[in-house]
Amino acid sequence: MNSENKNDQKHQEKMAKQKAKVDAAIARADKEQGVVIVLTGTGKGKSSSGFGTLLRSMGHGNKVGLVQFIKGNWGDGAVVGERAMFQEMPLMTHKMMGSGFTWETQDKSKDQEAFDHIWPQAKAMLQDESIHTVMFDELTYMLAYKLLAWEDLKEALESRPKMQNVIITGRGAPSALRDFADTVTDMKSEKHAFQAGIKAQAGIEW
Fold first, then answer.
1. What confidence tier does 74 reach under pLDDT thresholds 50, 70, 90?
2. What is the pTM of this model?
């Protein structure tokens, strides 16, 4: 057997072992239930990852729900790219909190009022068995600014339909939420164009 054939055989044996491990892991995962996914960390792409999962779900003919808790009424005719697209998708129910960035309003009472208006609509999605996947974009800020109590969020998540999936995004996900979730991804930022003085642009940041 020449060296090329030996290398091919070693590779085949290695891949066979890897396949056996993967097959065994798949066989062990026999529970059928919806999952809670948390996308957090300082890196860019948390919301975009969640949006991609919603698109994937709709690709299977599923209804999805999206509530955005930070992007709202930016003024000056600003267009949020995902809102423009999602409004054209019949399988998606899309809601936005409407007050913009909380550090722009600088008014806790107005932020609380805006949250109290949207939260019942968000909870209604968690009670709708026809919605396959719900995404709460930037919800971690609502916890951080104490507009939402963790106990209230936990209760809503626990009482949702068994097969419903929930995606929660935002920086600084608290440990209670991380522990509760089934899947947690912490995105790390190595560098960002904004730090080099490059302006944010439509289609990339919003």
1. very low
2. 0.81
In-domain check, residue 206: no
Whether 80 maps to a domain, the answer reads yes
User: Containing domain of residue 108, as a range?
Assistant: 33-189
C-alpha to C-alpha distance for 101 and 161, rounded to whole angstroms: 31
Q: Which amino acid is at 10?
A: K
Instruction: Tell whether 14 and 65 lie within a shared domain.
Output: no
Domain count, the chain: 2
Of 17, 128, 12, 148, give the one whose Cα is nearest residue 65.
128
- φ, ψ (nearest 5 deg) of residue 183: -135, 130
Contact 192, 45 (CB under 8 A): no
Ordered strands of the 183-187 beta sheet: 92-96, 63-68, 131-137, 165-169, 36-41, 183-187
Whole-angstrom distance, CA of residue 20 vs CA of residue 70:
45
